[in-house]
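Pasting as-is:
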Amino acid sequence: MSEKALRLQSRHWFGKSSAGLILGFGLALAVSGLFAWLGPDGIDGGGGKVQFNMWLIAPVWCAVLSCVFLFRSSASAWLWLGAANALAFGLLWMVRATLI
């Protein structure tokens, strides 16, 4: 790869930021839901599990939002995060269907 291709650019910052905000939030919700169902004591885990699930959303969302600028273009950010959302929500739907 040439040096020009590896150089990070700020051309697509709005598309990448909006992908991170919108799809990152969806991905954080799905990951939190998966932990709620598959984590210790399942969905009925008492104590601070509900609070932990709620607070798990923020670091996952921030991690996605901070890593979204590593994509080469906003289209690839939307595509990959959309695919990750579809996979995560599909997995969450499957887990809920099998555990209920």
